[in-house]
Amino acid sequence: MHASFEQILTPDRDPDHHHQKVITYLQPRGTPQVSQSKKPSVNGTCRTFCSTSWRSGNRTLSASGTRLNGTMDAFGAIIRREGLKKLWSGLPATLVMRIPANIIYFSVYDSMKNRLGFHSGEASNIHSVLVTILASGCARTMAVTVVSPMDLVRTKLQSQSMTYMELGRCLRAGYQAEGLFSLWRGLGATILRDVPYAALYWSNYELLKTQLMRMWDVAEATVSMTFWAGAASGVMAAIVTTPFDVVKTNKQIAIGDAARHKGIACPTRQNTLRMMMQIQKQSGITALFSGVVPRVAMSAPASAILITCYEFILHVFRDVNTKNMSPT
Fold first, then answer.
1. Disulfide: which of 23, 109, 154, 212 matches 90 by Cβ 3.0-4.6 Å?
2. Cβ(144)–Cβ(191) under 8 Å?
3. Does an H or E element contain 147, and which?
């Protein structure tokens, strides 16, 4: 949802104070608007792209002077400004990224979990909880590392209205300025977001699923049990990890901007935790949870559908293996 919004930090006009104000613009088509300033900010940069979505709980002002208040206002503003198709920008890159990411993620998770001795009936056991956290963390780290360049492409397409040719020029500018590893910019923040998300999601999911099985006295979870356990776990994990998503998005959006705007230091190399503290200091704790409503709204059904399909496919393969191994 932070597709068409940019927040630019500007120094306070009072020369006796060195605080910064956050001004949110509804970004028009083309390159980001950047105001020039001679006074550096507190972290030594002339301009820093900070939070890429509206400030949760606070009204913000677009370039056209329209007051935006929350998710639905943002939906309407994007549709009016750039059309309904903008809400699906970056979809091809998302689909290309999700398929290999999920194959790696679920394959590694299930394999590690079984090898480390996880038992679904003992999900509340400390050993099973630790196995779940370790397996999900390792699986997610491998998956996001492989697809990080494609995630960067998706983020750029969603945040700035540009053609694929313009995107290519932007990525080349980032490569020339920072080298090959510019394609993995934001990976640290992504891992800090996705590994806790995976650990929280899977540990809560296994616990909730086990409790539902015990409540209904069944040996195997039904489709509805997996669906609701997955949805609830996705909501909890999404809320906790939103600050890391805000930082990750900013780092990826900034790729190529430094090369296009000479003298502007973008936050691509800034420490993730330091950047979070800077956002909190300058814009308040709510800025770290910018976009939490659409993120939760996406995570709940997506997690529920994905885990239901995952469990169904596992069930089918187990049945096939059991039949093949049984004597005829």
1. 154
2. yes
3. helix 126-159
Instruction: Say how far apart CA 100 and CA 112 lie, in whole Å.
Output: 18
Strand partners, 21: 10
Instruction: Report CA torsion sign: 290, 292, 297, 300.
Output: positive
Residue 75: exposure state from Cβ atoms within 10 A (0-12, 13-18, ≥19): middle
Nearest to 245 by CA among 275, 288, 297: 288
| Crossing angle for the helix pair 272-283 and 223-253, to the nearest 10 degrees | 90
Encoding tokens for residue 108? 């590694």
Separation of alpha carbons 194 and 188, rounded Å: 10
- How is residue 41 annotated by DSSP? -
Q: Burial letters for 163-177: b for 16+ Cβ neighbours within 10 Å, e otherwise?
A: eeebbeebbebbbeb
pLDDT tens per residue, range 248-277: 887 777 765 554 444 444 555 567 888 888
Q: 303, 233 in Cβ contact below 8 A?
A: yes
